[in-house]
Design a protein that fits this description.
This protein has about 120 residues and is an all-beta fold. The chain has no helices and 9 strands. It has a 5-stranded antiparallel beta sheet with strand order 1-2-8-5-6, with no helix packed on it. The relative contact order is 0.38.
Length: about 120
């Protein structure tokens, strides 16, 4: 099982200027586990849009990986948790593109916990 904080807000950024923020994810598992993430939808003023900029997530190995609809593995070979679960801070980086309108965007991401037996 997992629980994710409701939202993540990046600092303001101009085109080509990357900004970072972390999202807390709590996992409960009685077996070894891994964590996957993907981006599902982007909206601007409640309308679907395609971003020119990039959304990235940092894996446990420290590499930034482009985030789109393909699931990206960000944690692997994690041990079973206790009843309290374990909370991990998942780093994201957003770099707006020159074609992206100024304003607030909503980016829906999806996390998946996978068993590693």
């Amino acid at each position: 099982a997992l629980q994710v904080q409701d939202s993540l807000t990046f600092p303001e950024a101009g085109p080509g200027q990357g900004v970072e923020a972390e999202l807390d994810v709590t996992v409960w598992s009685n077996v070894g586990w891994g964590l996957l993430v993907s981006a599902r939808a982007v909206q601007f003023d409640d309308q679907p849009v395609d971003l020119e900029g990039q959304l990235e997530v940092r894996s446990a190995s420290g590499y930034w990986r482009f985030l789109d609809q393909v699931e990206r593995e960000i944690l692997t070979e994690q041990p079973p948790t206790t009843g309290d679960g374990v909370t991990v801070a998942v780093p994201f980086r957003f770099t707006p593109g020159y074609g992206d309108a100024p304003g607030r965007y909503a980016i829906q991401v999806e996390f998946t916990v996978v068993s590693e037996i």
